[in-house]
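Chain and backbone:
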Amino acid sequence: MIDTHCHLDAAEFDGDRREVHAAALAAGVTKLVVPAVTVAGFGKTRQTVAQYAGCAAAYGIHPLYVIQAAEGDLGTLRRWLADENPVAVGEIGLDHYVTDGDPLRQEFFFVEQLKLAREFDLPVVLHVRRAVDPVLKQLRRFRVRGGIAHAFNGSRQQAEAFIQLGFVLGFGGAMTYIGSTRIRALAAELPLESIVLETDAPDIPPAWLNGGRNAPAELLAIADVLADLRGITRPAVVAATTANARRVLPRI
């Protein structure tokens, strides 16, 4: 399996990163995409993916961190994209859930990073919290080679818009909650070739963790939830979602 979104470099794993990685491998998670969130963290992301087998980096500036970013960070990102052979530009996008964010600054950094993705012909890993339509607007303006809409929580129409633009949709812990009716309906009904699996560890824990720290080993049980929702087998889910991830992230 491929965990298409796992912050294995996060401080929450500093005490037991090796054990967390080993548990993921034991659960059959053989590939993990580790998206950076700040330029200051690029070095730790690189160190993590170099040290742990099966990990691959994406480099980008997360929308919730653009307030502390300088415009010169875009030049730094460009150098890392040129030199480090990442699988994607990410985690980038827009977040309109946090009320003290700066939407205009988020949009500036998002657009500039889309331009970099286009320059390097890289897919993007998107953060789209409460901002699906504004993200789609920019994707139509600055066409990239596709990628992943991480933690998707939009409508069926919005999902289809992403698919038409060459994206797949990331499903993870939120899908495991009985109350997440819209997400679970999308997971059950969207074309299977449009879905990838993710944990967003250490965040978005599945229901059975009761708000505790998420980890990439949980991807196996998340795959079982998707299989149950769709009425298919775990091997079918694993085969399809792995193929989808490899299609949109060819460097993985």
